[in-house]
Design brief:
The complex is a heterodimer.
Chain A lengths: L9 E3 L19 H26 L13 H10 L5 E3 L5 H7 L3 H8 L25 H13 L6 E6 L6 H12 L4 E7 L2 E2 L2 E2 H4 L8 H4 L3 E6 L3 H16 L5 E6 L18 H8 L3 H13 L3 H24 L7 H4 L7 H13 L1
Parallel strand pairs in A: 1-7, 2-3, 3-4, 4-8, 7-8
Antiparallel strand pairs in A: 5-6
Helix pairs in contact in A: 1-2, 1-3, 1-11, 1-12, 2-3, 2-9, 4-12, 5-6
Chain B lengths: L1 H8 L4 E4 L1 H15 L3 E5 L15 H5 L4 E3 L4 H13 L3 E5 L7 H11 L2 H4 L9 E6 L14 H5 L5 E3 L4 H13 L4 E6 L8 E4 L11 E4 L4 E5 L3 H14 L4 E5 L2 E3 L3 H11 L2 E8 L4 H12 L9 E5 L7 H7 L3 H12 L3
Parallel strand pairs in B: 2-3, 2-4, 4-5, 5-7, 6-7, 10-11, 10-13, 13-14
Antiparallel strand pairs in B: 1-8, 6-12, 9-11
Helix pairs in contact in B: 2-8, 4-5, 9-13
The chains are: A alpha/beta, B alpha/beta.
Chain lengths: 354, 339
């Protein structure tokens, strides 16, 4: 017998859990302003998540999936993207969406039960959130094929969770992306829990990153609580895709510090001790430690930032709450470009009942 | 290549074509007039499709636009959603309807609702083609008729041609349509008849039934390959002095009830014929609509002649599954007994 294939999965980390530099910083991460900008997005996302959960608890928002603990994956990935790239998020990527130019108000409008929240004023070609797990991965391959056929230097970036990697759609999308050398970056946001099913039960594979190997392209792991590593790995994968060298799968190791959604109670299936351990590795404090040690980030800077983010969130919430609902006929009006006669009849019948 | 050139040169002249040739001709026409039209599917390239619907198209339009996919239905159904949202008009082929089920997730959850859920920001002008139906002695899972499943999905159009000319005109319309269309091709009649089809780019409406035979005594409503049995039944009935009107529904969704109701207002009697199983079949929708909107015109109960509510039998028994002209004639005679 002889070996016919061999592979290695590499792991990247730049900041250790205490925010100390572990290895060499990429050029962007030596710039204080660049790091502060990333930190600001993370703090804003965390403030937004907390507020959105509070809105749900008080009956002013529908079910919501907080991204607490996964801010580095969200912000790191989106910040590395070019404006003309396209983001295909799952449903826990509002941090990434905000960086892309989706507004907090739009995110709230969507989770508040109004389709207009997915009619982004900013990134017009970014996809809306994808609730059926992993079913958006084929769309990423399709968007990437569009870019390739038009010879556009654009990349489709698809983010999904650890659970999604068990689904055929994700493998099928990776397989075709590999076979056709499509400009896609797949991000597995491995937060360790698919609702109540832990990563250890999800698959016997040692890493999720190695699932790329079967599809014929590189997979790597990054410390998903280290925004510098996430951003750098994503930037490299984007460069590779843009240069015509095909897809990459990045498994970002992070942790879902909150419940799956506001309809979930994670204490049913995991203990506080585990969650407490992961709080010591979370991404926001990690970058703050680094900023404090390396760039003189002070308590006053922190307080000013938190106050500014809180005000920004508050203003978005006010706009959201003040937004009148769509007229009921809107449920019909976007079914087809031109409404068939039967739909016109049903629309009129619905309005008659009003 | 030679064949393709000939098609272009004689584009306005009518040629005698089979239904599957007309499908190919419509795709070629659409690709010629719109470079965003891309074909995807298994074996559609060099092989020209297992039924040869895409024969010659890879030579004419290249492998970028006539793409053999991996054996991956989630991709054949799902990749076009991304492609369409980014400005292309993909036409995807599922090799046989029995393999379409993995795609339904993509159709229900994404293709059919992308326009609605983004309030028109992203749209999905894709066509999903699949040969469907029994009667060609194919292996298991190759012969089902599951059009009603798709007709139940809001946001879709569901189209089934029954003749070469309608295949050409309806497929062109489907490809040009700004919304997703499920285009089901009755493979039993892919090569059953030839008909003069002019490659003039003329599309047919996607919201209209076609009255293919005029009559005043009874309305026979059908679609797809069953049009043949239905027309055969009409001929038998004509021998009895009964003038049957035959309607090809063609577009199941959106359904043109006006044409059916206008016919029933004249005949007062209706037999609906489809190959798909009876229960929950699309005939039930038409019958319910007749009961609601056409009751005052009806002088007899609506009859449905359909496939049995069985698992589609393998080839030895499939002939006993398929509705026959005899069953249609018998149903018509029953409704004609009412004064």
């Amino acid at each position: 017998m002889s070996a016919v294939a061999a592979f290695e999965i590499h792991y990247r980390r730049t900041l250790d859990p205490d925010g100390k530099v572990d290895g060499e910083l990429p050029p962007f991460a030596r710039d204080r302003d660049a790091l502060v900008a990333l930190y600001r997005w993370m703090v804003l996302t965390r403030a937004f998540d907390a507020k959105a959960v509070a809105l749900q608890r008080t009956g002013r928002l529908g079910t919501f999936a907080s991204s607490i603990g996964q801010e580095a994956v969200n912000i790191g990935v989106a910040d590395a993207m070019a404006p003309e790239d396209v983001l295909l998020p799952s449903f826990r990527e509002h941090g990434a969406q905000l960086v892309r130019g989706v507004t907090m108000q739009e995110v709230l409008v969507y989770w508040g039960g109004d389709e207009r929240g997915s009619d982004f004023a900013g990134p017009r070609q970014d996809f809306p959130v994808c609730i059926p797990v992993g079913t958006h991965a084929p769309h990423a391959a399709g968007a990437a094929l569009a870019f390739k056929l038009r010879d556009e230097p654009r990349v489709a970036v698809c983010i999904f969770g650890d659970g999604a990697t068990s689904r055929g759609d994700v493998y099928e999308a990776m397989n075709v992306a590999g076979a056709w050398t499509l400009p896609v970056v797949f991000i597995a946001n491995n937060n360790q829990w698919a609702i109540s099913v832990p990563r250890s039960t999800q698959t016997a594979a040692e890493t999720l990153a190695q699932k790329a190997i079967a599809a014929g392209f590189d997979g790597l792991q990054v410390d998903g609580n280290d925004i510098i590593a996430v951003r750098q790995a994503t930037a490299e994968a984007l460069d590779k895709a843009r240069a015509g060298n095909g897809p990459t799968l990045i498994e970002a190791l992070t942790y879902r510090l909150g419940d799956h959604t506001t309809a979930d109670d994670a204490s049913r299936y995991r203990d506080d001790e585990e969650v407490g351990r992961h709080w010591k590795e979370e991404p926001v404090a990690r970058l703050r430690s680094h900023l404090t040690a390396a760039h003189g980030w002070r308590k006053a800077d922190e307080e000013a930032l938190i106050a500014a983010c809180a005000a920004e969130v508050e203003s978005a919430v006010e706009s959201y709450l003040a937004m009148p609902p769509e007229p009921p006929e809107a449920m019909f009006d976007w079914l087809y470009e031109e409404l068939p006669a039967e739909i016109v009849r049903q629309r009129a019948a619905m309005l008659e009942q009003e | 290549m030679a064949k393709a050139r000939k098609e272009t040169e004689t584009s306005a002249a009518a040629t005698e074509l089979t239904l599957v040739d007309a499908v190919g001709l419509a795709m070629a026409r659409a690709m010629q007039e719109d470079e965003t039209v891309i074909l995807l599917g298994e074996d559609i390239g060099v092989d020209g499709g297992v039924f040869r619907a895409t024969d010659g198209l890879i030579a004419r339009f290249g492998a970028d636009r006539v793409r053999d996919t991996p054996l991956s239905e989630a991709i054949i159904g799902g990749l076009p959603v991304g492609l369409a949202a980014m400005g292309f008009r993909p036409v995807a082929e599922i090799q046989f309807m029995g393999f379409i089920y993995p795609v339904i997730d993509q159709i229900v959850n994404h293709a059919a609702r992308l326009r609605t859920r983004t309030r028109g920001r992203l749209t999905c002008p894709m066509v999903l083609r699949a040969p469907y139906g029994g009667g060609i002695h194919a292996p298991e899972h190759h012969s089902e008729s599951m059009e009603a499943m798709f007709a139940h999905i809001p946001g879709l159009r569901v189209v089934i041609p029954s003749s070469p000319a309608r295949a050409y005109g309806l497929l062109l319309a489907a490809i040009r349509d700004p919304d997703p269309v499920i285009f089901l091709e009755p493979k039993r009649i892919y090569r059953a008849t030839r008909e003069a089809v002019a490659d003039n780019g003329g599309a047919l409406p996607l919201d209209r039934c076609f009255t293919v035979l005029k009559g005043a005594d009874v309305t026979l409503v059908s679609w797809g390959a069953m049009l043949k049995e239905t027309l055969d039944a009409a001929e038998v009935l004509a021998g009895d002095g009964v003038d049957a009107e035959v309607i090809d529904v063609a577009t199941l969704k959106p359904l043109d009830m006006d044409t059916i109701l206008a016919s029933i207002s004249k005949t007062g009697r209706c037999v609906i014929v489809h190959e798909a199983p009876l229960t929950g079949g699309f005939g039930a929708e038409i019958a319910a609509r007749l009961a609601g909107e056409g009751l005052m015109h009806l002088v007899a109960p609506v009859e449905r002649v359909a496939g049995w509510d069985t698992v589609m039998p393998l080839l030895r028994l499939e002939g006993r599954y398929m509705p026959s002209p005899e069953r249609i004639v018998a149903a018509a005679r029953r409704v004609l007994e009412y004064a």
